[in-house]
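Hi P.,

Sorry for the delay on this. The queue was packed all week, but I finally got your sequence through. Input first:
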Amino acid sequence: MNLHYFLWKFIYTSFNIGIEKGFSVERNNFAIIRANNITPQPFSMKTIFDDRVFSSLGIGFRHEVSSSILIAFEYQRGYIEAGKINQHFTYNPDYYGSNLPYMLENYLFDNFFNDRSLRNSIYQQFYLSAGLAI
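Then the structure:
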């Protein structure tokens, strides 16, 4: 939802609020390439990104170049939620024997030794727009 309110003549403020729709990414059949050898691996990874809420406030200036041409400049500052990321791994344990798949080892290593917590973000946007008034 995007709301505009004109404060004085050509100066306006804006307020935006919304939800960024979540999505998922699925990766199948990885391969390890070493020297002249390509080894396919029976492994799949599905990453699910949850919906994220965002909002912003802005201030802008609109100018009429002629009776039908408008130009506007707006600055917005906002906040967007980090959202959650879930990862699901599927692999054939018989293929790997007593080892874990390379991608799963990397994932576990990163989450164990590195701070992988997601943080909310503050963002800025500059808009320059032009249009025709009918």
